[in-house]
Write a structure and sequence with these properties.
heterodimer, A: about 325 residues, mainly alpha, MetI-like fold, 2 domains, 14 helices, about 0% strand, flat, B: about 300 residues
């Protein structure tokens, strides 16, 4: 002990092996101090990491707070009943009407057009890539599809307005320059990668044994894909569809550019119409004073949009829970 | 088995094979529609826009005359906003990912954080714009500035960075942690010396994809009230005189690439549509370049996996 003390009082082994005699008290204390500072440092770091993680919760709280508090002032001026049942949306006119149904019709119509494109094509692509395609085709096709999903939506808006609309006008001469159809079609193509990649992941997670069993019974590839793999992966495929729906409902720029910004209560995709998101953009582009009723409408519209996507997310959560297959 | 039965079985097999083939063709067609659309979009924009691409296009301010208009204020604005976004989202996202993977125990608060991150990824981007308008612009008084836009987009891509960080960390086998702990390393030492360096390429992939998304986002930035016509540059972040750095640019009005493109697209004159195509072409090249880099990184990563 005496040797170790004289050799270097501060070294760890000496301190750790220090006996109960008085000579070792000082290094032991130093060691404990170091240990305590290490514990403190670890705690501080953990607390900082926790704070960083709670930013996301604060974000959600902030979203809900901003939307609800502005909407509450809005609904003091406009009765909720009028908001839900009025069939006109003219918030900036002298004769102001606040019927959200008008904007909802645009949102739903364009989303339906988009989903009519994205769900069949996305599902077919997912089945093809997961069950039919060779490894090499998949390695090339998947990144290509991912790139499709990475294109900024304003680019799709330009494409819808100046490429797809003239093309459609050649087929349907009565089509106006702005229409839900062309915006919806392009939006559908934009959503394909979301639907296909998540569906494909779900299908690939189905155990090989299920497929082998079906093949052993003499099934064809298509039968295996449609009758074995798809039902087994249903919860994942449903989640992909739900994600596609919430993308479509929340999409903004394609509609703001190519569907026109005129409120129009219609379910006809051949007409122009404003969606909830396009209305928010339109108001934001203008110069509305903070606190005016027009300013508050975009928060009420935003709250409607958030609730709409929330409903779909809860539905997706329920579907996943209800139909989850565990292997 | 008589020949009739055999013939029947053969025809069933043939029909099954035919259906398989038809579906495979359908699959290739569906894939083709997606990829063809992408090519059409790219080529259409290139044909319309390439004529406008010149050095002046990058060094001119927007103008009433389409032929003289350029994207100087737009690309400078985009770069500065991305700087703020990256500086906020990267540390916050990595820290959150580390907390959720390495520190969070079984506690309801951690479950709340986890569910919350998943849900935030599904919130439409324009809602983030409304959050920023109500909170950053008016409540905090940050105004319609580069700082506001950067913070908004940072919150928007935070889930992307968090998810990428978590996935990268989850791929590291437990023996690495156990080895470090066995040698007396503390939790943070294990994380900072081992977990973080090993997961860095994966995290980087997520960060690049997130930033590529942020640079193309239009809706939230319009919602906070960014102007569409800016004919000046924000004050330079670096100065010649001491103290060499200048933070005035954070509070400066700005415009970004996608907003400039939106502005030109929504004008009726065809000459401005050409400008929109040129700006769009530059924007697509930027986002595609970033995405391709991320995909390549991930590919390399998968190939060099050590465990």
């Amino acid at each position: 002990m005496a040797i170790s003390m004289s050799a270097g009082a501060g070294t760890e082994p000496a301190a750790r092996g220090a006996p109960r005699d008085g000579t070792a008290i000082a290094p032991r204390r130093r060691d404990m101090k170091r240990k305590r500072s290490r514990v403190v440092r670890e705690r501080v770091i953990e607390a900082m990491l926790f704070l960083a993680a709670s930013v996301s919760v604060l974000t959600t709280a902030g979203i809900v707070w901003v939307l609800v508090s502005e909407s509450v002032t809005f609904f003091r001026h406009v009765p909720l009943w009028d908001f839900l049942t009025d069939t006109q949306w003219t918030p900036l006119f002298d004769d102001a009407h606040f019927g959200i149904v008008v904007l909802l019709s645009g949102t739903l119509t364009s989303s339906l057009v988009a989903l009519a494109v994205a769900i069949p094509l996305g599902t077919i692509i997912a089945i093809y890539l997961s069950e039919f395609a060779s490894h090499r085709v998949r390695e090339v096709a998947k990144p290509m599809l991912e790139l499709l999903g990475g294109v900024p939506t304003i680019i799709y808006g330009y494409f819808a307005l100046l490429f797809v609309t003239p093309l459609l006008q050649a087929l349907i001469p009565s089509l106006p320059g702005f229409s839900l159809l062309s915006a919806g079609l392009v939006m559908g193509v934009m959503i394909i990668p979301y639907v296909s990649s998540i569906s494909e992941d779900a299908m690939r997670a189905v155990p090989m044994a299920l497929r082998e069993g079906a093949y052993a019974m003499g099934s064809t590839r298509l039968q295996v894909a449609v009758r074995v793999v798809m039902p087994a992966a249903f919860s994942g495929i449903a989640a992909a569809y739900i994600l596609g729906i919430s993308r479509a409902v929340g999409e903004t720029m394609i509609l703001a550019v190519a569907a026109g910004m005129q409120p129009n209560l219609t379910m006809n995709p051949l007409e122009p119409a404003a969606t909830i998101t396009a209305y928010i953009v339109q108001v934001a582009l203008g110069d509305l004073p903070h606190g005016s009723i027009g300013y508050q409408t975009i928060f009420a519209a935003g709250l409607t949009l958030l609730l709409l996507t929330l409903v779909f997310n809860i539905l997706g959560f329920w579907l996943r829970r209800r139909f989850r297959e565990v292997y | 088995m008589d020949s009739q039965t055999i013939a029947r079985i053969r025809s069933v097999i043939a029909a099954g094979k035919r259906r398989d083939l038809i579906f495979a063709v359908l699959g290739v067609l569906a894939l083709g529609i997606g990829i063809l659309t992408f090519l059409a979009l790219f080529v259409d924009m290139a044909i319309d826009g390439v004529g406008r691409l010149s050095p002046e296009f990058f060094t001119n301010f927007p103008s009433r005359r389409a032929g003289q208009a350029g994207i100087l204020s737009a690309w400078v604005g985009s770069m500065l906003v991305m700087l703020v976004t990256a500086l906020v989202a990267v540390p916050l996202g990595i820290a959150s990912g580390i907390y959720l993977e390495e520190y969070a125990g079984k506690h309801w608060i951690n479950d709340v954080i986890e569910i919350n991150v998943t849900n935030l990824a599904g919130v439409p981007s324009i809602v983030y714009g409304l959050l920023a308008l109500g909170l950053f612009v008016y409540q905090f008084g940050l105004g319609q500035s580069i700082l506001t836009a950067g913070l908004t987009l940072a919150l928007l891509i935070l889930p992307v960075v968090i998810v990428a960080t978590r996935e990268a960390i989850r791929a590291i086998p437990g023996i690495i942690r156990e080895g470090a702990f066995a040698l007396g390393a503390s939790k943070w030492q294990t994380v900072s010396d081992h977990i973080l360096p090993y997961s860095l390429p994966g995290i980087l992939t997520g960060v690049i994809i997130g930033l590529a998304r942020a640079i193309g986002e239009t809706a939230p930035v319009i919602t906070i009230g960014a102007l569409t016509f800016i004919a000046f540059l924000p004050p330079a972040p670096v100065t010649v005189e001491p103290p060499f750095v200048n933070f005035d640019w954070l509070t400066s009005p700005f415009t970004v690439m996608p907003i400039q493109m939106f502005n030109w697209t929504s004008r009726p004159e065809a000459a401005f549509h050409q400008n929109a195509a040129a700006a769009g072409f530059v924007l697509v090249l930027m986002t595609l370049g970033m995405n391709a880099l991320a995909i390549w990184l991930r590919y390399r990563l998968r190939r060099n996996l050590k465990w």
